[in-house]
Amino acid sequence: MVACAAARCIRARCKMRIPAVVRGTMPETSNARAPQTRLPDRASRRWRRLAGRLVALGLAVTVVGATAIWTDVAGAGDRWQSVIDRVDRFVAGPVPTRPSVPTVIVTPRPTLTTSRPDPSDPPTTPGAEPSRTPSPTPARVAVDVNILPNPERVFASQITKNWCAPATTQMVLTIFGRGNPSEAFQRELVSRIGEWESWQDSHDGGWGPSAMVEALVAYGVSGYEIRAYETRPDALRDAASAISATGSPVILLAWRGAHAWVMSGYRADADPRLFPDATVTGAYILDAWYPRVSSIWGPSDPPGTFQDSAEMARNFLPWKRPEGKYPERDGRFIVLIPTLPLDPSR
Which of 61, 143, 272, 329 has the most Cβ atoms closer than 10 angstroms to its Cβ? Predict the structure, then answer.
């Protein structure tokens, strides 16, 4: 009975119609899919990380480069300044051809003073005996002269490798009380080179002996002459005589005109003002290159170092510049000689 009942139930269920499944959308739904937030894939994340690293690297390079330029690591500051100087030269245009301070060619060996007759001396007639006893001949003794007992107080190191001339000019102005050894004052001098540069003085533009003299005059120091000598002994003897006669420093153009030194004193076997044949055995020098080291000329010396005759022969060389000819200077020793006494008030 139970089995028959179960069989009938199964047959009844099999006869029921199962509705077909209709695919489609529910009336209350829309065909548009709801927006979904997509996570970035691996490639996108990789590019973003790379871009971030490049930005960080660029900032690091900028900071390191700026620091290297500021501290002049491996000469980076000098190279950057050279780029700036070239840009300034391009913007300024051709080097002006205005007149410059002339170079005086000295030959034969000069003397700063000439003997003049004393008006009180009575006139003499030919063959008459002199009425006054001649002055005794001065003793020939070695001299050691230096007008700067504390050279460090006026010393200025050149800020870049090309600024030896303004730094040297700066030291002379400081000695005269017309300047100071600060970097700000050196930059001020450099910024005014457009007032003094000329093609006759420097074919490349910028600083030359004439520009240095004009810069001194602009700040109230006059009386310097550009002199060219045939021999080194004559140049040093005249420079020594000028220091003793005026108490003012001399500027020597060293390294064939590529560099400038302040000469504050000298040693000689006799007073060059009294003995025209006196030999100058060396000079006290303030070198704006200090404390740098030159790949050609070697290390520089502290301010006020005595450079003996061997060092003068190695560094104080006749003018010869690669940019062209300078008829009055080529092959000669160039010196900026003071002709007026040191007077800080002028």
Answer: 272
